[in-house]
Specification:
The complex is a heterotrimer.
Chain A: E1 2-13, E2 16-27, E3 31-35, H1 42-49, E4 57-62, E5 65-66, H2 71-75, E6 78-81, H3 93-103, H4 112-122, H5 135-147, E7 153-156, H6 165-180, E8 184-189, E9 200-205, E10 208-213, H7 215-219, E11 226-230, H8 234-243, E12 247-253, E13 256-261, H9 267-276, E14 283-286, H10 291-302
Parallel strand pairs in A: 3-8, 3-9, 6-7, 7-8
Antiparallel strand pairs in A: 1-2, 1-4, 4-5, 9-10, 11-13, 11-14, 12-13
Chain B: H1 2-17, H2 19-41, E1 47-53, H3 58-69, E2 73-79, H4 82-91, E3 96-100, H5 104-109, E4 113-121, H6 125-147, E5 154-162, H7 170-200, H8 202-208, H9 213-242, H10 251-275, H11 279-297, H12 309-315, H13 319-333, H14 337-361
Parallel strand pairs in B: 1-2, 1-3, 4-5
Antiparallel strand pairs in B: 3-4
Chain C: E1 4-13, E2 16-26, E3 31-36, H1 42-49, E4 57-62, E5 65-66, H2 71-77, E6 78-82, H3 93-103, H4 108-121, H5 137-148, E7 155-159, H6 167-182, E8 186-190, H7 194-197, E9 202-207, E10 210-215, H8 217-224, H9 229-237
Parallel strand pairs in C: 3-8, 3-9, 6-7, 7-8
Antiparallel strand pairs in C: 1-2, 1-4, 4-5, 9-10
Helix pairs in contact in C: 3-4, 5-6, 8-9
The chains are: A alpha/beta, B alpha/beta, C alpha/beta.
Protein name (chain A): ABC transporter ATP-binding protein
GO molecular function (chain A): ATP binding; ATP hydrolysis activity
InterPro entries (chain A): AAA+_ATPase, ABC_transporter-like_ATP-bd, ABC_transporter-like_CS, P-loop_NTPase
């Protein structure tokens, strides 16, 4: 059974096509990730699915409700956490939560069970105003507020953007435990390394979906031989490798460069080439492609025009 | 209903926690009223007056002596005929003329109502009011102090203002301040707080909740309705008790009219907020389309009659013009229902117009 | 000469110690990664080094100038770029470059040369007279970096320059950083992408206002026995997360 069905949906703002002909499905109880950089159309897509925007074209069904026809019913069944912190800064943690609980016709006590694991972490500060909280705590409060009415489907728009790596990890742990309670979660993120934490992902760029699959299967789309290469002078290494005839693409990946080849050659062939260019401390190893390799490959293949 | 109450409660939290809002809400009316009040009580010592004593009796001399010994007045000139009054005023030195008619003592001692006329230069309205008030009080105290010896006596103090007979400004400023504050609090604050929710992104979250548009709008409006009403009452109380402005008409009618005007101001506020997503624009729009026209075109500062024809026409669409007139009519002239019916109707029509527009612009979706 | 020297640099806001006696040095031409959890005090430290905030105590020099007495000199010798504000969206690309050239007092001929240079390097010649708002985020950031480098500053402060930028543009951005560093500009950069921490020559990690670790990425990984900078960060910064 699908919790979300998006069928050929499009939305433009004036001349800018924010989302064009997007289709995908999210299964019930799935943790589904929408991965893509700023401007990929993730937020617009989210706003349509939570009934804030009407699509120009196409249709979508969330929790068996049409996002246009049944938007009023749907609104009580989804939890939505916008990308920007959207709580009342001048209300305390408790007042914010209480407000949203009452607005949805429930109370903190009634659904305490669902938010308990998250809420206990911020409860000691419940009389503190939301505006004075740290980034990580704001995020937890926002998640509590989005959960307080026990939604069937949870929409989290870039919950981890601008958040440090530690808080990000904690946040994903929370999502995992929510998923275990049977909640369907659609989450968007610009961080490719978070893709692996989802059941399935859609890669998005320029308003289009490039691929939808499990993280493991998506990496299978990447067919070229891939090596990780390191040497003493990184910047010169990039230049030299890009000029090599065997190179398809070469990008920095952490301390290594990822070198995708046009055709199969051995690591010693690469080493010979680099040695001839006076590189020292050369380290080359064969690696499996990750989501980010795959994403970059897909963008350059489709060469989605930069929207302007 | 519980949802709605939660919303109203939240709104009160916002207001009470924002010092700036509180300052505007409660500081402004006080400052405005006290400012005018200060100007009113200023400058009244040894004011030059002229006396036209046609009776020249014991009583008139005693009353004159009392006036002079009060310290508020000094005689600049004794006049001998009515014709001189106008000439003396035109010299610009004297502020007030006290006129005793020929039969003053006769009327006074025969149990009739004796007449004294006080004529004041109302080009400085505030001073004029104070001086006539002081003079009347002193004259009345004379009757009571002498009353012990002779049978009941009455003096009717008949004041007349020259140069500015209706005392525009002085009596208008309280209705004017009230209008301004109500507009500011009701319209500007509502439009700004709605825009703030849009700017902060909280409006999105509210849209996705089961709260209806009407609950959101009314929840925004009601706290400000209450605050505005309290504010209006505070201004009235300050005006009547501190500045001794008359309250000649029906209080209930006045309060109802005040509510109507607040309702209109709120509907304008909601209308403005339906046009913009930014607090800054909302603030600016409120200033341009309400505050400035209210100050300059409503008759608050400049009398409408002395405006160029074009501006006079424009002043007809300024809601404050009607409200100021209504308040003035009820408070000062003490006229009732019928006299203010037309102005009331205009205000009601304007309110309906803006509410209608707002409903048309009301959205349950973004963009 | 060192590009940045701090000695027990401290900033207090009331009772709260945002930056607590941090001491470090940054070499000329170094790419220095300045990491830390949200609220660890990075922004405060950066603001002091840029001459925007007066320290409560301690010493610091940036490009050889004192942060207490020579803030104007500092501002002339550094470049600054943040994720949030950098360029005027309602000016064209060309106007933005010329504007910044102007406020740094470059000569008109220089400004024209540099404008042409930047437009060519970023391949923006065809859209030079389009509004900056119309550029995709990644391009805006590359442009902002070029503009921050316009007056050839000795030190450039980059505050989360690549947040939300697509992976390819992000890498192109880092290549620009490498290039600038290879020409002797010191780069002082914050990021939440842990793979980017690996691109730095040295990395410091701030926790609760203090510098908890400072070393090369390799040295840090060896010290904490993990295979990625993410691992290092998870170990060090964990303490603050529940704050």
């Amino acid at each position: 059974m699908n919790a979300i069905i998006v069928d050929n949906i499009s939305k433009a703002y004036g001349n800018i096509q924010a989302v064009s002909n997007v289709s995908f499905e999210v299964r019930e109880g799935e943790l589904f990730g929408l991965i893509g950089p700023d401007g990929a159309g993730k937020t617009t897509l989210f706003k349509m699915l939570v009934t804030l925007l009407f699509p120009d074209q196409g249709r979508a069904v969330v929790n068996r409700k049409d996002i246009v026809k049944d938007f009023l019913q749907l609104r009580t069944q989804v939890g939505y956490m916008p990308g920007k912190f959207s709580l009342y800064q001048d209300l305390t943690i408790e007042e914010n939560l209480d407000f949203f609980a009452t607005v949805f016709g429930t109370s903190i006590q009634e659904n305490y069970d669902l938010i308990k694991d998250i809420y206990v972490q911020i409860e000691p500060f419940k009389t503190r105003r939301a505006g004075k909280l740290s980034g990580g705590m704001k995020q937890k409060l926002a998640l509590c507020c989005a959960l307080i009415h026990k939604p069937e489907v949870l929409f989290l728009d870039e919950p981890t953007t601008g958040v440090d790596a530690v808080s990000r990890k904690e946040f994903w742990d929370m999502l995992k435990s929510l998923k275990q309670r049977g909640l369907t979660i659609l989450v968007s993120t610009p961080y490719m390394d978070e893709a692996g934490l989802c059941d399935r992902i859609a890669l998005m760029q320029g308003g289009k979906i490039l691929a939808v699959d499990t993280p493991q299967d998506i990496t299978k789309l990447f067919q070229r031989p891939l090596f990780a290469v390191k040497a003493a002078e990184t910047f010169r290494l990039i230049q030299d490798l890009r000029n090599a005839s065997f190179t398809h693409s070469c990008y920095a990946f952490g301390e290594y460069l990822h070198l995708a080849l046009e055709h199969e050659i051995t690591s010693s062939d690469i080493e010979t080439y680099l040695a001839s260019h006076n590189h020292r401390q050369i380290d080359i190893k064969r690696v499996d492609p990750g989501i980010e390799d795959c994403f970059m490959d897909l963008i350059s293949q489709t060469s989605v025009p930069a929207q302007s | 209903m519980k949802r709605f109450l939660a919303f109203v409660k939240k709104e009160f939290f916002h207001i009470l926690r924002d010092r700036r809002t509180l300052l505007i809400l409660f500081g402004l009316p006080f400052v405005q009223v006290l400012l005018f009040g200060f100007a009113l009580s200023n400058e009244i010592k040894n004011a030059n007056i002229a006396i036209l004593d046609n009776d020249k009796s014991l009583h008139t001399q005693q009353i004159t002596a009392r006036l002079l010994s009060s310290g508020y007045f000094q005689v600049y000139q004794n006049l001998s005929s009515y014709k001189e009054i106008d000439q003396t005023f035109r010299k610009g030195v004297i502020k007030m003329v006290v006129v005793f008619p020929t039969q003053f003592s006769y009327d006074y001692e025969h149990g009739r109502t004796a007449q004294i006329q006080i004529i004041a230069d109302a080009s400085e309205q505030n001073t004029a009011i104070s001086l006539t008030n002081y003079a009347s009080a002193i004259i009345q105290s004379y009757t009571t102090s002498v009353a012990g010896s002779i049978a009941p006596m009455y003096i009717d103090v008949n004041t007349r203002m020259v140069f500015n007979p209706e005392l525009k400004g002085a009596f208008v400023f309280v209705p004017g301040v009230m209008t301004l504050v109500l507009l500011l609090v009701s319209a500007m604050m509502t439009s700004v707080t709605i825009a703030r929710e849009k700017e902060m992104g909280t409006m999105e979250v509210l849209f996705v909740s089961p709260l209806s548009q009407w609950q959101i709008i009314l929840g925004k409006v009601i706290p400000y309705l209450a605050l505005s009403f309290v504010n209006g009452c505070v201004i009235l109380i300050l005006g009547v008790f501190l500045l001794e402005l008359p309250m000649n008409g029906n209080l209930l009618l006045l309060l109802l009219e005040t509510l109507l005007f607040i309702f209109l101001a709120l509907s304008i506020g909601v209308f403005i907020s339906s046009l913009t997503d930014s607090q800054l624009v909302a603030m600016f729009a409120s200033m341009v389309i309400m505050l400035l026209p209210t100050i300059f075109l409503s008759g608050f500062i400049f009398p409408i009659e002395s405006m160029p024809k074009g501006l006079q026409v424009i002043s007809n669409v300024i809601p404050a013009k009607y409200f100021i007139r209504i308040v003035k009519n009820i408070m000062i002239k003490g006229i009732g229902m019928k006299a203010v019916a037309l102005d009331t109707l205009v205000l009601a029509a304007m309110a309906l117009f803006f509410i209608g527009l707002s409903i048309r612009n009301l959205k349950t979706h973004l963009a | 000469m060192k590009a940045v020297i701090t000695n027990k640099l401290t900033k207090k806001f009331g009772d709260f110690i945002a930056t607590n006696a941090i001491t470090f040095e940054v070499e000329e031409g170094e790419i220095f990664g300045f990491l830390g959890a949200n609220g660890a005090g990075k922004t405060t430290a950066m603001r002091m080094l840029c001459g925007l905030l007066t320290p409560s105590s301690g010493e610091a020099q940036v490009a050889g100038f004192d942060v207490y007495t020579q803030t104007e000199k500092i501002k002339q010798n550094i470049g600054y770029m943040s994720q949030k504000f950098s360029l005027y969206e309602d000016l064209t690309i060309r106007e933005n470059i010329k504007f910044y050239g102007g406020i740094y007092g470059l000569r008109l001929a220089d400004i024209n040369d540099k404008t042409a240079g930047i437009l060519e390097k970023l391949q923006l010649q065809n859209v030079a007279d389009a509004l900056t708002a119309s550029l995709p985020l990644g391009w805006k950031q590359k442009l902002a970096f070029s503009v921050a480098m316009l007056h050839q500053p000795k030190v450039v402060f980059l505050d989360e320059p690549t947040g939300g930028v697509d992976p390819i543009t992000r890498r192109q951005f880092w290549e620009m950083i490498y290039e600038a560093a290879s020409r002797g500009t010191t780069i002082f950069v914050t990021t939440h992408y842990m793979d980017e921490a690996e691109y730095c020559n040295r990395v410091s990690i701030m926790v609760d206002g203090k510098i908890q670790a400072l070393d090369t990425p390799k040295g840090l990984k060896e010290t904490y026995r993990v295979d990625s900078m993410d691992g290092v960060f998870q170990i060090l910064a964990r303490g603050t997360s529940t704050k």
